Amino acid sequence: MTQTSLSLNGRIWIEAADEKILGHGRVELLERVKASGSVRQAAMQMEMSYKRAWDLIKHMNEKFGAPLVTMHRGGKGGGYAELTQKGLDTIETYNNLRAKFDEFLNANSINLLS
Amino acid sequence: MTQTSLSLNGRIWIEAADEKILGHGRVELLERVKASGSVRQAAMQMEMSYKRAWDLIKHMNEKFGAPLVTMHRGGKGGGYAELTQKGLDTIETYNNLRAKFDEFLNANSINLLS
Predict the structure, then answer these.
(1) pLDDT above 90 coverage of chain B, percent
(2) Contacts of B3 (CB under 8 A, 6+ apart)
(3) pTM of structure
(4) Whose C-alpha in A24, A38, A64, A109 is 20 to 30 A from the C-alpha of B34?
């Protein structure tokens, strides 16, 4: 290959029973819930409907076998959303995989150019 | 992670200047042109319009800096399509990358289950 501008790119996601349960977008949603303490805020930031965000979170909570996000209702502020330890671990697991995948893409982009 | 049915999946593709120029579907198209000697046959097999198939091939021919597929017109059979050496090399390059990527997915799916 003499082309000098080729590079490798891609996406990864986690599946359970051949169904996608976690990828780049859902991890971003979890991270934004973690940062804001609010599913509504996270959804707005991602230009996603509140219903869509909740459907994704419910789907993850179900498919991972334990909640990744829990709601604390009531109180002065009207309640907040919080990531469970499993939610935090899941973000870390995905980000570690994504870092390894980025290494894979970089290593093989170099091969493409040679 | 105690969930036992999680696995990692993903897609890879080759880009030039941040634009996708080759992925799973286009490699399948090239392989079907190679096998059938016909862009029309390959398009039909993939339930793709002839125009769409040709647009993809023209795009690849342009972006890879040299043709991957050439047409031989006329003759008894009305002409045929043929992969160039660069086309054959490109299929091999992609399939080697895909094999490495499958190893990556398998290796990290095992980590997910532990």
Answers:
(1) 78
(2) A16, A64, A65, B113
(3) 0.84
(4) A109
Q: What would the two tokens of residue A49 be?
A: 């409907």
pLDDT by residue (tens digit) across A44-103? Answer: 999 999 999 999 999 999 999 899 999 988 766 668 999 999 999 999 999 999 999 999
Chain B contact probe: residue of A14, A21, A62, A91 with most B CBs at under 10 A = A14
pLDDT at position B1 is: 45
Burial code (b: 16+ CB inside 10 Å, e: under 16) for A37-66 equals ebbebbbebeebeeeebbebbeebbebbee
Which chain A residue's Cα is nearest to B87? A1
pLDDT attached to residue A1: 44
Smallest Cα distance from A31 to chain B, Å: 19
Tokens of residue A70, six digits: 């829990």
CB contact under 8 A, A10 and B14: no
Please state at what angle helix B24-36 crosses helix B50-63, rounded to 10 degrees: 110
Nearest Cβ partner for B14 among A64, A101, A112: A112
Check whether B49 has a pLDDT greater than 70: yes
Alpha helices in chain A (DSSP H): 24-36, 39-45, 50-63, 85-113
